[in-house]
Each structure stands twice: as C-alpha cells, then as structure tokens.
Amino acid sequence: GSYPQKNAEILSSQYGINLFLAGLLLTFAWAVHAVGISKSHLLSYLITLMLIQLLWMLWYLCRSCTQRRLIRDKDTHAGARWLKCGITLFAVITLILDSFKIGYYVDFSNCLSAAEGIFPVTHAAHTILQVYFLWCHAKDVIQSFKTLERFGVIHSVFTNLLLWTNGVLTESKHQLNEHKERLITLGFGNITIVLDDHAPQCNCTTTTLCSIFSQGIYYLYPFNIEYHILASTMLYVLWKNIGRKVEHHQQQKTPFKFHGITVGMIFGLIVLISTIAKVVVYLIQIGRSKIKSELALTMFYLHAISVLALMCTAGIVALLIHRLEDRSLDNSKNPARKLDAELLVGTAAGSWLLSWGSILAIICAQAHPKYTWYNLPYSILVIIEKYIQNLFIIESIHREQEKVNEDIKTLRIVTVSRGSTLSLTPSYKEIYNGRATRDNGELPYLLNSSICVRENGGGGGAKEAANFSFCSRNSVTNNKRRILKNIAAFLFLCNLSLWIPPAFGCRPEYDNGLEEIVFGFEPWIIVVNLAMPFSIFYRIHSAASLFEVNCKT
Fold it and tell me: Given 201, 217, 245, which residue is the final one in a domain?
C-alpha cells in the first residue's frame, strides 16, 4: 500500500509546484508591465485558487462532521495552541486589510476592474474558513481518501504561498518607490529614478478616505504576509502527516510560564521599546535631508550592533550550558520539528546574502561615507548571530525533555507539628531507593521542586550526605534551566524587535546607497527584493521557535 501512496505524494507535490510556478510567472509579468497582462488577470487566478480551496475545506469539514464519533489519529507536535493564537491575530489584521481594500475599491470603482473588488471579499471568506480549519484540524493524521486529500492540502499550501508572494511583491513595490525618492536626498543623483506606479488612473470620490485606505493598506501588509506563510507551513505539516503511522503516547504538556524569566523579559522589553523608538525616528528623519538621513542610518546601525552583540553573547552562554549538560537528543520522526529546523536555516540564507553583499560593497567601494563603515560590523554580526541562534534553537527543540528522577516515585503526604508526625497517609510507593521510611522524626523538605529527606538518629550521616549531594545536583540543574529560560525569553523579544524595522519600512539595505553604486541599482534591488521577505520571515519564525524552546526548558 505504500507504493501507490508514494506516487500520490509525488504527483500532488508536482501539481502544487506547477500551480505555484504558473502563478509566479503571472505575478512577475504583472510586475514588469508585460504586454497583455493586467492586475485583473493575476487576481482572477488567485480568486480561482481560493475558491477551489474553499470548496475542498468545506468538503473536508462536512466529512469530518459525519465521522466525528470515530477516533482519529493526531500529531500532538503539530498545530500548537500558541501557533494557532498567532495565526489568528495575523488573520484578524488581514481582515482589516481586506476591509481597507474594499473601501479603496469603492472610492476608485470608476477605473478599477471588478476583480479588484471581488478579490478582498473572497480573501476575507478564505481567511475566516482557513483559520477555523486550522484550529480544528491542524493536528489531524488523515487515513482515508488519502490521494484526494493530498491534492487538496498541497493546493492549499501553494495557494497560500502565492498569496504570500503577491503580498510581498505589492509591499516591495511600495517600499521601492519610497526608496528611490530618498536616494535623491542622500546625494545619489547619478542613479536613474523612475517610479513604478500602479496607481488608478482616475480621481477618488472621497480624497480623505482614499488617503487613509491607501496608506493603511501598506502598514497592514506585513501582518498579511506573515499570516499566509504561517498558514502554508501548518498546511505543509498536515500534508506530510497524511497516511503516517503515529505512535500512541501522551505528550507532556508544556505551558508557558512567566515565573523565573523576569530578567530575560526586562532586558527583552528594553530592546523592544528602544527598537520601536528607533523605527519611529528613522522613518521621520530618513529622506528629509542628507544630514538627517545619515544620522538616521548611523543610529540604526549603532542600535542594531548593540542588540546583535547581546544576542550573540546570550546564544554562546546557552550553548555552553548545553555542553555542560548530558542530555540525549530526540531523533523520533517529527515533520513539524524537521520543518522548523529547515525553515530556520533556509530563511537565514536571505539575510546572509544581503550581509555578504554589503561586506563586498564596503570592501570594493572607492568612496566611503562615514555612516557606511558601521554597516561592516553590523553585517558581520548578522551572520554570526543567526549562526549561533540557529544552533541553539535546533539543538533545544531536539533535546529530550528532562524526566523525573527515578529515585523519586511518589510523595507521601506528611503533616508535621513540633518535630513529630501527627498524621501520615498510607504508604503508596517507596520514596527513596524503593524502601519505605519510618516515622522517626523524618522530615521532607522541598528545594527548587526537588525532594530532600533528612534522617535523624544513628547512622544517618551517610544518607544526609547523599541527600545533600542529590539536592545540590538538582539545585544546579534548576539554575541552568532558569538561565536557559531567561535567554530564550530575551532572544524571543529581540527577534520580535528585529522583525519590526524591515517589516515596517526601516531598511538600510535600500537607503545607504553604497550597494547600488557597486553592484548597480537594478541588480541590487532585485537581490534585496528576493532576500528581504525571507529575512523578515526568519525573525518571526525564530520568535515562534524560541517561544517553544522556553516552554520545553
């Protein structure tokens, strides 16, 4: 039975890839103003894909309702609750974006095609049903209609990837227009400035509302982009789980707790607040004048260098703690964990490409404005920090959770008054070395969630030493765990902080101008537009992975 299913997996993956390539070529043709290709053609293709996915999801939900009494296999590692909450937040903001697009269409309805009005309505319905589907069925291990379901799920994966590509391209074109205008203020007049304008060729019926809608759309696009890439990853895990044999064992729940991570949270919040302030100042100052733009770029680099240096230090400390601990790795088959590791390394390549481009530009450039020298340590630290952080995250998610010490089987409940035992529950199981204890003044202590027993009477010295050693080992282990949790919390907030600047238009790769002179304007802009989406996604994915690491530690 595995041979036909393997063929179905290959056929469905090829179907999805061709679906994606056709949409990608259509998107590219619209972006370069190809003859005979308009935005309505691209939107019509995307609407068709979304409608097909909607039909498949409705069919799957209806079939699940009719079989709700059957016991279904579940992948406990897939579709974590915090991941579902994250995608729901992004989906809500995406719905606001759709409402802005509808308002924008109404105001420019005289010169926009019908597809531009149908698209946001279809997209809103698609978003609502897809989030509901992922909440209810992200953990499913499909064992029936497997061939059909493979095509349905892979269609959903590549539909979301195309919607992500469309969002990235639209947002990048907007950023590029702003970037071209800023270059003039930095003195790069030798670069040809030609704005790529896709604006409607008619007047707006309500000028104020049109301005709000057009500006608001581009501020909301980062959330829409992250929503679609998260949805595609969750659906990909669902596709990989089709027909999989799952081991039936109860996964230990690992809820997130704020207790014990105060230090990491405080330092992380300082980084987050300072980053938001930096972005606000950067967006206000950049493009105003040459002096203000240079000061904004210098401020960006100095802040980023400080944050990246702290992150590198924290990551090295965490790796050293891992080296000191003797913990085995969990090598069991886990599609979600494997995908997380592959995405970390794959998306990090985007920012590594930009960093190496900046390093080569600094080395090869003939003239070096003062602010460009800060780009060199910044680019080097970006490469080193992601290298260290990837190693820490991947090792952490593969480490087996620490099990309860075998010497401690169960806790006997003791009520103590004036040094004597007043009441003692019946013995359930042995507490220490499998032997029942006597009620001779023995007193349990709790130290950092580990149990220490003090023996009174003759011959207790050796046991006291053994118990003290046992408690000391547990105290050291708990201290290491607390440090790791604080580091994970700090890195979590730092990655959220570093996601904000590029997601909301603070992109020195565009604005410093040195790379454009060395590589040429068009080649460098192509590199940035291809690599930047992966760099942005890396930060939000790293934050999600670090949240999981914090829960597991």
Answer: 245
Place of tokens 């902080």: 497
For the chain, how big is the Rg over CA atoms in Å? 28
H-helix or E-strand spanning residue 294: helix 290-324
Provide the pLDDT for residue 243.
77
Give dist(CA 308, CA 313) in Å, integer.
9
Same domain, 178 and 322: no
Residue-wise pLDDT for 286-301, tens only, equals: 877 778 888 888 999 9
Same domain as 312, residue 166: no
Taking residues 114-119, report their average pLDDT.
91
Same domain, 185 and 219: yes
Cβ–Cβ under 8 Å, residues 507 and 532: yes
Number of domains the chain contains: 2
Q: Are residues 266 and 230 in the same domain?
A: no
Q: Do 421 and 415 meet the contact criterion of CB atoms below 8 Å apart? A: yes
Which pTM value belongs to this model?
0.74
**Residue where the block lists tokens 């060199």:** 376
Q: Does 250 fall in a domain?
A: no
Same domain assignment for residues 208 and 274: no
Eight-class DSSP state of 429: S
Question: Taking Cα atoms as reference points, which of 231, 65, 59, 68 lies closest to residue 145?
Answer: 59
Residue 358, SS3 per DSSP: helix
223/276 same-domain check: no
Residues 202 and 173 both lie in one domain: yes
User: Which of 88, 47, 98 shows the shortest CA–CA distance to 227?
Assistant: 88
The answer for residues whose C-beta is within 8 angstroms of residue 430's C-beta and 6 or more apart is: 409, 436
Residue with the bigger pLDDT between 124 and 472: it is: 124
Residue 444 lies in a domain: no
Token pair belonging to 332:
């069991």
The pLDDT of residue 34 is: 81
Strand partners, 551: none
- Give the CA diameter of the chain: 97
Q: Could you tell me where the beta strands, DSSP code E, fall in 384-480? A: 414-417, 420-424, 443-447, 450-454
Average pLDDT over residues 165-172: 84
Domain end, chosen from 187, 222, 245, is at 245
Q: What is the pLDDT of residues 286-343, one digit of tens each?
A: 877 778 888 888 999 999 999 999 999 999 999 998 888 766 666 666 777 788 888 8
> Which residue range is the domain that position 337 belongs to?
259-401+476-552
Do 27 and 109 sit in the same domain of this protein?
Answer: yes
154 and 13 Cβ atoms separated by less than 8 Å? yes
Sign of the alpha-carbon dihedral angle for 180, 184, 190, 195? positive
Q: How many CA atoms lie within 13 A of 506 on its CB side?
A: 25
Confidence of residue 445 (pLDDT cuts 50, 70, 90): very low
- CB contact at 8 A, 43 and 115: yes
Contact between 477 and 521 under an 8 Å Cβ cutoff? The reply is: no
Which of 76-80, 84-88, 192-196 has the lowest average pLDDT? 192-196
User: Three-state DSSP class for 501?
Assistant: helix
**Is 192 among the domain residues?**
yes
Residue 270 within any structural domain of the chain: yes
Question: Phi and psi dihedrals of 454, rounded to 5?
Answer: -110, 125
